[in-house]
Amino acid sequence: MSIRPLDDRLVVRRVEAETTTKGGIVIPDKSAEKPSQGEVVAVGEGAVLENGERRKLEVKVGDRVLFAKYAGNEVKLDGESLLIMRESDVLAIIEDTPAEEEAA
């Protein structure tokens, strides 16, 4: 089954939560917070402006995004838990930087 969000909404799949800290401490499932990062799996056509034109979304399918802790609405589709949220709920797009730039 596929899903197509409307207007300026997008569908996000949460990334798996870290189960250990950087120091190697294992975090129990009950104590772990829901991750606030996800991968965009579908986007709408964009917000409708007052003049009737559509403003395209900056977020695209495949982007990894950060969002607020309680952003969006959680839905289950084919047994998978997904979030449907507005583009304005996205705080940032995570961009990978090449290793060459990090060394400079």
Automatic annotation (TrEMBL):
- Would you tell me the protein name for this molecule? Co-chaperonin GroES
Q: Which gene encodes it?
A: groES
The free-text function statement in the UniProt record for this protein reads: Together with the chaperonin GroEL, plays an essential role in assisting protein folding. The GroEL-GroES system forms a nano-cage that allows encapsulation of the non-native substrate proteins and provides a physical environment optimized to promote and accelerate protein folding. GroES binds to the apical surface of the GroEL ring, thereby capping the opening of the GroEL channel.
Major localization class: cytoplasm
Q: What organism, scientifically named, is this protein from?
A: Marinobacterium sediminicola
Keyword flag Protein biosynthesis: no
Subcellular location(s): the record lists: Cytoplasm
The entry sums up its family as follows: Belongs to the GroES chaperonin family.
Say if the entry is tagged with keyword Cytoplasm. yes
